[in-house]
Specification:
- With 429 residues, the protein is an alpha+beta fold.
- It has ten helices and 17 strands.
- The strands form four sheets. The chain has a five-stranded antiparallel sheet, sandwiched between helices. Strands 6-17-14-11-12 form a five-stranded antiparallel sheet, covered by helices on one side.
- Helix 7 crosses helix 8.
- It is rod-shaped and about 115 Å long.
- 31% of the residues are buried.
Length: 429
Amino acid sequence: MCRAGQQSDPYKADDDRISSAAFATLLEDSAEELYESAPCGYLSTLMDGTIAKINATLLNWLGLEREAVVGRMRFSDLLTVGGKLYHETHFAPLLRMQGEISGIALDIKQTGGGRMPVLVSSVVKHGSTGEPQLTRTTFFDARDRRAYEEELLRGRKAAEEARKQAEADRARLQDALAVLQQSLLPDTLPPIPGVETAAYYHTADPDRLGGDFYDVFSIDGERFGFFLGDVCGKGPQAAAVTSLTRYTLRAAALHDPDPVSALTTLNKALHERYAASGDPRYCTAIFGILEPDPETGQVGLRLASGGHPPVIVVRADGTAGFLPTSGGLLVGVLPSARFATATTALAPGDSVLVYTDGITEARTGEDRTSLYGDEALLTFAAGHAGKPASALIEALTGLLNSFGDGLDDDTALLALGVPAPDLQTRNSR
């Protein structure tokens, strides 16, 4: 009964009657119709696999008539060759042991030679006394899923091929960079009478060209020049500056072997070449001259520094110290620059270590926040006093390796030593 002022809605009543009628019609579907027209395939087989019952959906997928299947074919006859093999070796044994099996991916044969991917689930029906009577099996259309899996597989394969190609490209790039990097360094160090030489170059990033450099060369057979430095930046631009620097210093030393003159020439070349373009390039550098004295066995050392870390002199008696060269300006920044100079004499058993700041700025400690530092390097070098230059470089190489990922900058090392009286002169790189 409606309240005062309200009227019933005849359209709503009609909708309710229609909905009820449709629902009643749905409930009138027979079990047989639901079985035959189900969206999945149904199959019942005897325990030997003979097909006893099959629904219209599965017959339609197979493209077969019921008379050709029921009582005439077995479950395995519906499968492809690979499916039959899997059925005999895995599917059937597991079903006998467990009484049920689900979600198995198989392919069924279709009339005309096609195949259709399906997901199969089976359960064994038992009698009142527990004996197995028949097997009920459902088939779900897996064509969309198979297509998705194949597309996913193609995507993974393409990604894997792309990864392998990228790795191969990177390996080729690293090989090319290694060759180019090596071309910027001397192949070997020349023999120097009464002096042993050794060097090492650590590349922090194999994907980028470094800017550290060094060289040792003869000036006139009695005097020998050496230099070591660090170009600002990385990559091809740094490599170009490194190449210009090496050849400029070599040419300058042959014209005038004075260390300050050599660095002055380099400063002028870098400034004129890069400053005018608005992209100034500069470097730090040590340039030195060695003058062996065959009569005394000592080696005179004169050097100049342009903003480079100080050279370490290690004496045969176990002491070590920095050769002071503070105040030298970076090479290439200004049209004219002041360079610090220093001199010393190396006696038998003494050595000098020249290095770039990659080693002193290596990050140490568990949190990688502390720098190794100049004093630690000085102490380390002093611990190898009296040893050949090659032994000092070998020890420093081990030190660099111990830094692990804390060493994130290129490092060049050059050791020049006067052998102790009981050691033969050796030259190595």
